[in-house]
Design goal:
- The complex is a heterodimer of chains A (284) and B (330).
- Chain A is α/β, with parallel strands linked by helices and 284 residues long.
- Chain A is built from six helices and 15 strands.
- In chain A, 19% of the residues lie in helices and 31% in strands.
- In chain A, the strands form three sheets. A seven-stranded mixed beta sheet of chain A has the order 10-9-8-7-11-12-15, sandwiched between helices. In chain A, strands 1-2-5-4-3-6 form a six-stranded antiparallel beta barrel. In chain A, strands 13-14 form a two-stranded antiparallel sheet.
- Chain B is of the alpha+beta class and 330 residues long.
- Chain B has one domain.
- In chain B, the strands form two sheets. Chain B has an eight-stranded mixed beta sheet. In chain B, strands 5-4-12-11 form a four-stranded antiparallel beta sheet, with no helix packed on it.
- In chain B, a hairpin with a 3-residue loop joins strand 8 and strand 9.
- Classes of the chains: A alpha/beta (284), B alpha+beta (330).
């Protein structure tokens, strides 16, 4: 099993701060406060080429910019999954298909798609944290023969907060050797699946660490409990990959705010192994 | 070559024909680098300006582009470029070194900041060596020489009635062509000086690497008012925010100085704040200056200008901190 190698400080580009105007060509309402926007240039092209895990700055031009992970991509589009939590996301949520937005990127590094080849992949996510994980999961499914068993462990507060429901319940479970495990924190009518926090759910599932790499993304408490949970299962920090988030303005390592020690999440990250993070002084 | 002091007015008049010339002077009671009008207003003999000259390259507020909706309903983005030929005359070693630091930030590591580069390419730097030091100056402890700015395009040293003139870069040599009518043969006597305030940087970075969880950050931040003064007067602080102003169907997106001492700086939508109290913010500021920047760019982000030492209303003093770190056994 070869070591997981993550590239850092590998993003580059010209005129990084100026957005290009693109169109929203599709909107999926994932939950009451999460929407996925499919974005394309006015010429019908992909706004930029990017690798799974990279970031893009999405702009409601009259309101402001916010950084999002590219949740998925096709030959001629990219997708951002946006939770409505602040001014920019509120404005984005008010837009319809055909609306014009600003896009700049790609920024940051990417998931180690190469060095994970041949491994069994364990994806762990909570809530909106499935968006960046989806980029990698989607990649492994497109390159199915390069990866072993694919396991997804996903939770949300309640049934209605689960994002990508179509993929979760209709698409991914039907992919070869792919196991989708979903839990919610709070039981409700119409939910017959697991009711369990993510970390105990992980333990209950007894996921094998053999030849496996784990990919983890969620809020601060999920990050803390599930990184511990994965360690308990026997995962080494070198084999747990995560993607971080902090407030960002420039996206290119200059405006200063998203640093952990001497590294900038927007430029050197967002993707790190837990072993790499252990060596950094972290406010995250 | 030397530039007689009586010729400075004529030289700067000549330079003003093709560039905006910035000199140290008092404007509304504040010493800063401002456009040259007459030699009488200049304060070339002051030790240091209250505000650093960083705004010549990195304005406090800088328009990046206009956006809007045209008559056909199509959205547009129209980048701005307000860069013009500029000369900074009388910059000191500390502030010159801060430009070296800002060059690292804005021009390296994968992305070149187009707005900074446009201004940087058009800036001629003329340094004057210091013959006097303030009691808060400590640049020589930070590895600098108050009388020599090796990265300045042109270096002047001040004698009694003239400055010695040396071009140090290709740009400086080219610029000196137009200086010729004002120069003459000669030499000047320059007094040897050193800073009175001393700090010992030996081992400070290594110790800081082990001090992230040290109680000093809690103690030091207790008196901090989080006013941000240190960051605004600092010549190397370069953090910025991006915001916009709208008018009917168009608007301007601009960037402006921000401060890591403010809680909103890292406050995320959804209310999580990775640096929730003054302790984390102050720690990040000092660690950035003395530790993180070196990890990233191989140099310290403090140039020893002493502005924050002088202006902090509650005497949070980076030189005292460096002394304290030196004494810690960590």
């Amino acid at each position: 099993m070869s070591k997981i190698e993550i590239s850092h400080g590998c993003a580059f580009g010209e005129k990084p701060l100026i957005p290009q105007i693109c169109n929203i060509i599709g909107i999926v309402e994932e939950t009451s406060d999460v929407k996925t926007f499919r974005i394309q240039t006015p010429e019908g092209k992909k706004p930029f080429e990017c690798r799974p895990g990279q970031l893009g700055m999405l702009s409601a031009m009259f309101t402001g910019e916010s950084m999002f992970c590219v949740a998925d991509q096709g030959d001629d589009y990219i997708e951002f999954t946006v939770k409505r939590v602040g001014m920019v996301t509120e404005e984005l949520h008010s837009l319809s298909v055909g609306a014009q937005v600003g896009v700049r990127g790609p920024y940051g590094n990417w998931f180690p798609t190469e060095s994970c080849k041949g491994r069994n992949m364990v994806f762990v996510a909570g809530g909106i944290g499935l968006a960046p994980v989806r980029a990698f999961l989607s990649y492994t499914l497109k390159h199915r023969e390069d990866y072993g068993t694919i396991t997804l462990v996903y939770s949300a507060s309640n049934k209605d907060d689960l994002v990508f429901k179509k993929e979760l319940f209709e698409v991914w479970p039907n992919e070869p050797d792919t196991h989708v495990n979903v839990s919610v924190y709070h039981a409700c009518d119409g939910w017959e699946g697991e009711v369990c926090y993510t970390a105990p759910f992980l333990e209950k599932l007894g996921i094998s660490t053999e030849n496996a790499a784990a990919v983890l993304c969620g809020g601060p408490s999920l990050y803390r409990t599930c990184s511990e949970g994965l360690r308990k299962l026997g995962f080494a920090d070198e084999d747990i990959i995560t993607t971080l988030e902090m407030r960002m303005k420039c996206g290119v390592g200059k405006c200063g705010r998203c640093n952990i020690g001497g590294k900038f999440i927007c430029l050197d990250g967002p993707v790190f192994t837990l072993a790499e993070l252990a060596g950094l002084p972290s406010d995250v | 070559m030397i530039l007689k002091k009586e010729n400075v007015q004529n030289l700067l008049d000549e330079l003003s024909k093709s560039a905006l010339v910035f000199v140290p002077k008092e404007v509304d009671g504040v010493l800063k680098f401002a456009p040259f009008k007459s030699a009488d207003e200049m304060t070339l003999d002051i030790i240091n300006t209250t505000l650093p000259p960083k705004d010549l390259l990195f304005p406090q507020t800088q328009k990046m582009y206009r956006y809007g909706i045209d008559a056909d309903g199509k959205m547009y983005v129209d980048p701005s470029d307000d860069s013009a030929e500029q000369v900074v005359f009388g910059i000191r070693t500390c502030d010159m070194q801060s430009i070296v630091c800002m060059d690292d930030v804005f021009l390296t590591k994968g992305f070149v900041d187009e707005f900074y580069q446009a201004k940087r390419d058009k800036l001629l730097t003329v340094a004057i060596g210091c013959n006097k030091v303030a009691e808060t100056c400590f640049c020589d402890s930070m590895g600098l020489d108050p009388q020599n700015s090796p990265t300045a395009d042109i270096q002047l040293l001040e004698g009694d009635d003239a400055y010695s003139v040396v071009a140090q870069t290709e740009k400086g040599e080219k610029a000196l062509e137009s200086w010729k009518p004002f120069l003459s043969e000669g030499s000047v006597e320059v007094p040897k000086i050193e800073c009175a305030l001393k700090v010992d940087m030996t081992g400070v970075k290594d110790k800081l690497d082990r001090m992230f969880d040290h109680p000093i950050w809690e103690e030091l931040s207790a008196k901090c008012l989080a006013c941000g003064t240190c960051t605004y007067v600092c010549p190397t602080c370069h953090c910025f925010d991006i915001s916009q102003e709208n008018k009917m169907k168009d608007g301007v997106r601009f960037r402006c100085w921000d401060s890591c001492m403010f809680s909103e700086y890292t406050q995320m939508a959804g209310d999580h704040n990775p640096r929730p109290t003054k302790k984390e913010r102050l720690r990040n500021r000092f660690m950035h200056k003395l530790c993180f920047f070196e990890d990233r760019y191989g140099k310290t982000l403090c140039v020893g200008c002493g502005r924050c030492v002088e202006k902090c209303p509650v005497s949070v003093d980076i030189t005292c901190l460096i002394d304290q770190i030196g004494e810690f056994d960590v």
